Amino acid sequence: MKRSLGAKTLVYPAPAWIVGSYDARGKPNGMTAAWGGLCCSDPPCVAVSLRKATYSYGNLVARKAFTVNVPSQSQVRQADYFGLVSGRTTDKFAATGLTAVRSDLVDAPYVQQCPLVLECKIVHVFELGLHTQFVGQIVDVKADESVLDAAGKPDILKVLPLVFSPGNQVYYGVGVSLGHAFAVGKEV
Amino acid sequence: MKRSLGAKTLVYPAPAWIVGSYDARGKPNGMTAAWGGLCCSDPPCVAVSLRKATYSYGNLVARKAFTVNVPSQSQVRQADYFGLVSGRTTDKFAATGLTAVRSDLVDAPYVQQCPLVLECKIVHVFELGLHTQFVGQIVDVKADESVLDAAGKPDILKVLPLVFSPGNQVYYGVGVSLGHAFAVGKEV
Q1: CB contact under 8 A, A188 and B83
Q2: HEC profile for chain A?
């Protein structure tokens, strides 16, 4: 028996990514975003949605670029901090001790300590309501050597990204492997 | 030291949702999608991206509605099956033993056995390249009584959604709690 819960943004899993940008003076900023996801394979694109009220919103509009930085479990406090305060009044990098690195490819900084980062140029801006969706074409993905597997691909169990639960607003880790896509279903 | 991995759709976590729809004859279909995410709080919206080649694509365009069905860990085989074969030639519900339930709110079926389902009417269709992004306004969220917590909210550790890893294409479970958002960052 299913219970109706109403019209709510309630679905799992959601990500918790730090969206990196520069403000008008070139000060790096980051904000934690959970409204987002991959949205196109060719060109490779990722979407993040921001409220107009955020400081990052103006940065993305002006710079036409952002980075997606995937914090690891050990960085949950810093990641949450990036969602707690505004870059308008705070230098979040200074406050957390994280390092903003200028991208060679797009006009945005990435977070050096995040094990996986995506450099994105904005190719679409969609007004959806309270949130504006920025679609970024992924120009490059960069990963720490320490999180790569033998084949040179990032291993999610080394990256250890945050899994955000919109309902109770709790961060979780990644659990055990349940099998390969396009494979386990053959046994259905 | 970060290694450049190129322009790839490589970020964590991604979801694994069954997108429910009706075809022209009213046959229910579902397809597993990992390119998607929440995208607006007001109105509450979720986005899913489909390739034009999929059978579901035409269904969504014609019916202007879809459901997002969150499979549980125990349904990983069925969920994968919904991404392996085409609804053009297969009745995936019959093949998996899952049940399509007609929504009272939108012109799409949901999956009875999935613990959490979202009923969505399409409010935007964005052409991004290989994928088309459908933005669905969430009209209702329905959850099994068995996955609700004491406050009547879905508990992610009872829903046990799949966490998809685009790199190695493996499904994972949800891991341990790492703390509350808008809270743990205060200790940074």
Answers
A1: no
A2: CEEEEECCCCCCCEECEEEEEECCCCCEEEEEECCEEEEEECCEEEEEEEECCCHHHHHHHHHCEEEEEECEHHHHHHHHHHHHCCCCCCCHHHHHCCCEEECCCCCCEEECCCCEEEEEEEEEEEECCCEEEEEEEEEEEEEEHHHECCCCCECHHHHCECEEECCCCEEEEEEEEEEECCCHHHHC
Q: Which of B124, B134, B43, B128 is nearest to A135 (CA)?
A: B128
- In the prediction, which pLDDT does B188 show? 85
Locate the chain A residue with the closest alpha carbon to B123.
A128
pLDDT tens-digit profile, chain A (188 residues): 899 999 999 999 999 999 999 999 999 999 999 999 999 999 999 999 999 999 999 999 999 999 999 999 999 999 999 999 999 999 999 999 999 999 999 999 999 999 999 999 999 999 999 999 999 999 999 999 999 999 999 999 999 999 999 999 999 999 999 999 999 999 88
Nearest to B126 by CA among B47, B58, B53, B69: B47
Question: Is the complex ipTM higher than 0.90?
Answer: yes
- Token pair listed for A181: 């896509």
Residues of A in contact with B144 (CB under 8 A): 1-3
Q: Do B183 and A40 touch (CB under 8 A)?
A: no
Residues ≥6 apart with Cβ < 8 Å to B104: none
Chain A to chain B Cβ contacts (< 8 Å): 387
Distance from CA of B25 to the nearest CA of A (A): 26
pTM above 0.90, yes or no: yes
Which residue from B172, B143, B171 is spatially nearest to B70, judged by alpha carbons? B143
Q: Is B65 within 8 Å of B120 (Cβ atoms)?
A: yes
A4, A18, A39, A177: best to mutate for the B interface, most B CBs within 10 A: A39
Give contacts of B80 with chain A, Cβ < 8 Å.
179, 181-186, 188
